């Protein structure tokens, strides 16, 4: 049998029963499109999560103070991060002696009431040095960032996040050169950062950056830092840098047992991998639910093909009398079921893609249709056609030509 | 050329063996027009199935063009049917939603040595040989009359020029007048084109169109005579 003949025969028999073919295809369309749409929601969520995590910086380790340890009989512990165990000296020591480090950026953070002419807001104040914007991938929309000169001069300058700028000066107002007051000290606004997205607590758009030395002197009055951001030179150095920082700080703090360390190190890779494994599980779950409808569609195909084989028993007998052998008959019926699923698959991909777009458009949920999910859908639909078409095709091929020709 | 040599056929119906053909022998040369006649239950249908390579004899030999085909497997038998035998059935067995030309070119799907470009020409030649008007060729087959349908079926049977046309009660579903036209078509194909034709029937009036009659009764040949 030539493949052109096979295609022509398939087209002929599917088009001579249009409504039945269309309904069977519909089953597959629903299955495939829901697989694509569901997986796009799952993958969109995981892309969202990993984008947000990597927007915090790349190859980043964050060293945070641990819970407060008190020597002596008092064993009341405060919450993690409350201790003042990390200092600017620790930060400098890390920079000086741990290898494969790109940059170190300590921060001193504090939440304060901020006022400008007539407006006020309560926001986070970050004392940073010139490395911080590099390490955390912060871009400036206007003006300049915190410079080394400002840090050494303990200059009273501030860089605002866009949300804070909006709160204090009005939406998209030009704030450069304006004055703000933090804790009765006056600061000059020198820059505004670009919006990063993200809302709510910990938003990187709603805060104020000032030189770290200024923060230490006027806001906290101490040399202890809130955290130290360490950027490794490359992703493969992360583990080594983490171990180096750990060893150095244990030694500096005179702690022998790493379990009782008065600091903790957050690895961005760990965060990313645990977040993406959660998203991966969600994608799998959504895909599995959609997969059920695909199986139902496949059973629809099998049902139609079995009906077709029964209806066309005499035709099968005739074809055998004309010289069709078993493999020709299998090929013919398999081609019909695979074509049904293939057409259903193509329409389903288009529909699923549009559905993913619609979900994104109407619910602002991030959706991502990836080539791998399209490829998955196409191969599943072809597989469904083969698996559910094979049994009816085999049944047709097994028919005895004499019996089939007598069939009424 | 067909040589049937002491062919028997026994069916095993739930443990009870039933012998339908009890040692049949005959020879049919190329270009003959033979009627195999017998009442129902005589074994003529079984004989037709064996002649048509749809079935294998239990014992005995069947030579078609000097090739022993009594021991071939299913696939080899399918190839024999495709190349050497054209069937004409009592109930036509046309694809009802397909055009006349599509029905007639159907055998080429399984005997695909003929290039696709030549198929329509050959189908046209076959339809001319059975005398079907050209304006019907693109009609759907279920729009034709019974006589026209059977002529389309005959055209389908001879389109790839098989050695033998095997017709099983070809007039059984037709009235006597159209039946006669169909039988004359067979006669003409035999006379003008030299096709070997084997007609299986229970009706002596049909058999008289053939040049030779083989009569079968209870699985044995009781008469073999030339007209």
UniProtKB/TrEMBL annotation, chain A:
Q: Does the keyword Nuclease apply?
A: no
Q: Which UniProt keywords apply?
A: Cell membrane, Membrane, Transmembrane, Transmembrane helix
Q: Give TM regions.
A: 21-42, 284-306, 340-362, 368-391
Q: Which domain of life is it from?
A: Bacteria
UniProt membrane topology term: Multi-pass membrane protein
- Residue limits of the ABC3 transporter permease C-terminal domain? 288-401
Q: Which Pfam families match?
A: FtsX, MacB_PCD
Q: Which PANTHER family match?
A: ABC TRANSPORTER PERMEASE YTRF, MEMBRANE COMPONENT OF TRANSPORTER-RELATED
One example of the protein's molecular function in GO is: transmembrane transporter activity
The record's subcellular location field reads:
Cell membrane
Where the record annotates domain MacB-like periplasmic core, the positions are 21-247
* InterPro entries recorded: ABC3_permease_C, MacB_PCD, Macrolide_Exporter_MacB
Q: Does the keyword Signal apply?
A: no
May I have one GO cellular component term?
A: plasma membrane
Q: What is the name of this protein?
A: Multidrug ABC transporter substrate-binding protein
Q: What is the similarity comment for this entry?
A: Belongs to the ABC-4 integral membrane protein family.
Q: What is its main location?
A: membrane
Automatic annotation (TrEMBL), chain B:
Q: Provide the alphabetized UniProt keywords.
A: ATP-binding, Nucleotide-binding, Transport
Record keyword DNA damage present:
no
Query: What PANTHER family is this protein classified in?
Result: ABC TRANSPORTER ABCH.1, IMPORT ATP-BINDING PROTEIN
Asked if ATP-binding is a keyword of the record, the answer is: yes
SUPFAM superfamilies listed in its UniProt record? P-loop containing nucleoside triphosphate hydrolases
- Name the domain of life: Bacteria
Molecular function via GO: ATP binding; ATP hydrolysis activity; transmembrane transporter activity
Q: Identify the taxonomic lineage of the organism of origin.
A: Bacteria, Candidatus Magasanikiibacteriota
* Organism in which the protein naturally occurs: Candidatus Magasanikbacteria bacterium RIFOXYD2_FULL_41_14
One Gene Ontology CC term in the entry: membrane protein complex
What this protein is called in its record is ABC transporter domain-containing protein
Q: Which Pfam families match?
A: ABC_tran
InterPro entries linked to this entry: AAA+_ATPase (IPR003593), ABC_transporter-like_ATP-bd (IPR003439), ABC_transporter-like_CS (IPR017871), ABC_transpr_LolD-like (IPR015854), MacB-like_ATP-bd (IPR017911), P-loop_NTPase (IPR027417)
Q: Which SMART domains match?
A: AAA
Task: Describe the location of the ABC transporter domain by residue ranges.
Answer: 2-226
